[in-house]
Design goal:
By secondary structure, the protein is mainly α. Helix content is 75%, strand content 4%.
């Protein structure tokens, strides 16, 4: 946000409405450069945050799938054991 009005209340209101920063005229070039760099850094951090949330969701989905596959494998092993030895058939299922 760039303006000739140097009021703190106006700056606060603009920031609450979504402005990334507030620069008053006449411009100080060093201040403009700092504000642009800070805004770009915040944008990069927001992108990284979004990516990490997406990655966390993918990891959670993979964990659920791996857990299902693991339990399915255990169940298949129990059935294979029971098919081989009828004497321990019920025991293997109860332990699983």
């Amino acid at each position: 946000m760039a303006t000739a009005v140097a009021e703190a209340n106006l700056a606060i209101q603009c920031m609450r409405l979504g402005a990334d920063d507030y620069i008053t005229k006449p411009f100080n070039l060093d201040e403009v450069v700092m504000n642009v760099e800070r805004t770009l850094e915040n944008a990069c951090l927001n992108i990284r945050l979004r990516n990490s949330r997406t990655l966390a969701a993918k990891v959670e989905a993979q964990t659920v799938e791996i857990r299902k596959l693991f339990l399915g494998s255990i169940e298949a092993l129990v059935y294979a054991l029971e098919a081989k030895d009828k004497y321990t058939a019920g025991h293997s299922r109860r332990v699983a």
